[in-house]
Write a structure and sequence with these properties.
By secondary structure, the chain is mainly β. The protein starts with 5 loop residues before the first strand and ends in a 7-residue tail after the last helix.
Length: about 120
């Protein structure tokens, strides 16, 4: 089944992102309270210190948007989850033929869901 969703992030709101060495950006679409029920959106810029399993060459960052960001699935969404249970959606469709990462530390860190 195809997935047709659009997440809209408004100007002036914070976004939290992961960037891999290839420059792919994944924007957080939800944060999880299961592992830390006291976390708030104000804490999210600082969770990098809690992402122990994140590969060294990945970057966690936060920014305040100066223009609207729209993430559309267009039938297929590439989603990953960090060790805290937060989920991120890839900003642009995959440019590579093999979208699933197999083996190594990265495969244990990412959960990729597609064609929902």
């Amino acid at each position: 089944a195809e997935r047709e969703t659009t997440f809209v992030y408004r100007v002036g709101t914070p976004v939290f992102q992961l960037t891999n060495p290839e420059g792919d950006i994944y924007t957080m679409q939800s944060y999880n309270l299961r592992k830390n029920p006291d976390i708030t959106i104000e804490d999210l810029p600082y969770i990098n210190d809690q992402l122990f399993s994140m590969p060294e060459d990945w970057i966690y960052s936060s920014t305040i948007l100066d223009k609207e960001l729209r993430l559309s699935s267009n039938g297929k969404a590439i989603i990953l989850r960090d060790e805290l249970g937060n989920t991120y959606q890839r900003n642009k469709p995959a440019a590579r033929k093999n979208e699933l990462i197999e083996g190594g530390a990265i495969s244990n860190y990412l959960r990729i869901a597609a064609d929902r």
